[in-house]
Amino acid sequence: MLFKLFLPFAFGYFLSFLYRVVNVAIAPDLVSEFGLNANQMGLVSSAYLLAFASSALGLLVGRGLIGIGVSACLMAAFTAYANLLPSQKLPLVNGLQLMSGGLGVVCASTPVQWFLTWGDWRLLFQGLAVACVIASVMVYSLVPKYQVNSNGESLAQQLVALWQVIKHPRFYQIAPLSIATQGVFGAFVGLWSGYWLRDYLALSESQTAQIILTMAVAMTAGFVVLGALAAYAQRYGISAHIVSVSGMLVYMCSQWVIINQWSQWHHLWWGLGVVINL
To answer: Is 104 exposed, middle or buried (0-12, 13-18, 19+ CB in 10 A)?
Structure first.
C-alpha cells in the first residue's frame, strides 16, 4: 500500500523539481541558440516554461498551465497521504516526499551537465516529457481512490477562513521573513546561482555543476535534518518558530558571505545556506 501510494507521487515531485532547476545547466545553450538576454532568460525560468512562445500572451498562458500542473505535485501527495495513511506515518512519508524533490535538484546538476556532453536540451526535454506521461499513468493507475472530507464547507466559507488567517497579526510575524528568504532561495537555486558562478566568479561549467550538486545534496539532507532538529529542540522548550527563524538568519549571513566574496570555500557556504534555510 505504502509503496503504491508513495512511488507515483514521489516520482512526480522529483520531476517537478528537476524541471524547476534544469535551466541552471542548460541556460548557456538557450541563450546562445535563441539570443536571450538575462531578463528574458529569467522570465522563461520563472514561467517554468521551455517552449518559446511567439507572444507574451502565449508565454503567460504556458506559464499558467505549467503552474497549475506542478502545483499538484506536492499538495496532492500530502492530501492523499493524510487520507490513506495512519497519522504516525505522515512525518516520515512527508519527509521522504520532500526528499524526492531534492533528488530532482541533484539530477538537474552534474547528471544533466554530463547528458549535455553527448545530447542537446531538446533530447533532454523529450525524455522528460515521456517521464511526465509515465508519472501521470502511475498516479492514475496505482494510487487508491478516496474521498476528501471537506466537512461540508463551501468555497466561500473556506475563503473566509483563509482571510481570518491572513489578517491575523501572527501571520505578519512569520510571513515576511519566510517569503523573502524562500523567494530568494527559489530564484537562486532555480536560475541565478548558475549565472553567478559562471559569469561573476568565472568558474567552469564542471565547477558550477559540482557546486550546484552540493546545494542539491544539502537541500535533500535539510528536509530530514531540520525536521529532526526542530523535534529535538522542542524537548528543551525551543519552539519550531525559533528554529525556523534562526535558519533563515543563518541563510542570510551565508548569502552575505557569498555576495562579498569573503571566502573561497564555495561548497561550504552555498551548501550551508541551502540546508539551513529549508
So the answer is: buried
Let me know whether 183 and 94 are in one domain.
no
- Per the structure, the complete domain to which residue 33 belongs is given by 1-149
Please report where in the chains the cell 520563472 appears, as a residue. Answer: 46
DSSP 180-229: HHHHHHHHIIIIIHHHIIIIIS---HHHHHHHHHHHHHHHHHHHHHHHHH
The 10s digit of each residue's pLDDT in 225-248 is 776 777 778 788 887 778 778 888
Q: Residue 265 in 3-state DSSP?
A: coil
Rounded to two decimals, the pTM is: 0.73
Q: Please give the span between the terminal C-alpha atoms of the chain, in angstroms, as a whole number.
A: 29
Number of structural domains, the chain? Answer: 2
Q: Which of 104, 128, 149 is the last residue of a domain?
A: 149
Tell me the residue length of the chain. 278
SS3 148: coil
- pLDDT digit string, tens, across residues 188-198: 776 677 778 87
Contacts of 63 (CB under 8 A, 6+ apart): 46, 47, 48, 49
**Domain match, 25 and 139 both:** yes
